[in-house]
Amino acid sequence: MIRKNPSGDLPVIAESAFVDPTAIICGKVIVHDNVFIGPYAVIRADEVDASGGMQPIVIGAHSNIQDGVVIHSKSGAAVKIGEHSSIAHRSIVHGPCEIGPRVFIGFNSVVFNCKVGEGCVVRHNSVVDGCDLPAGFYVPSTTYINARTDLATIPKVTASAAEFSEDVARTNNELVAGYKKLQNEF
């Protein structure tokens, strides 16, 4: 469902993107080319700041927002998902937040009030809260990272983890084309 927010903003979705009919995209959301938005995802840009304004939620080209993902923002803060990034099933991305290009956020993970640098991998059931994660870091499953975390204890992305992330992005890009072909059959 594509709908306006109370401020009257309507999502802008590239024609080449695929949005599952069960997904909800509300308000000041920009979805770029060849993005996959899966079943029951919710992307909602509707809160305003103290002056009544809001920044958009932007989903970069060739990214995928998988089943049950929630993307929202506090008080109209910006959320940006970089190109070729994967936000896996049931994750929460809550702004203010910036996810760099070619990032993988694993199942049930939460990222809030942070920046996740290019090529990072945040594995399943992890939390990145209130900090900047530089490019190329690997967050193991069930890890909690915040502003007090010593990043020297966080490993770098391995070749196999990077390959996995690229494969997920590639697979979901192929799904866009497949579902776009099917959408006119119903």
Automatic annotation (TrEMBL):
Transmembrane segments: none
InterPro entries xref list: CA_gamma_LbH, Gamma-CA, Hexapep, Trimer_LpxA-like_sf
Gene3D superfamilies on file: Hexapeptide repeat proteins
SUPFAM superfamilies: Trimeric LpxA-like enzymes
Classification via PANTHER family: CARBON DIOXIDE CONCENTRATING MECHANISM PROTEIN CCMM, CARBOXYSOME ASSEMBLY PROTEIN CCMM
Family: Belongs to the gamma-class carbonic anhydrase family.
Name of the protein in its database record: Carbonate dehydratase
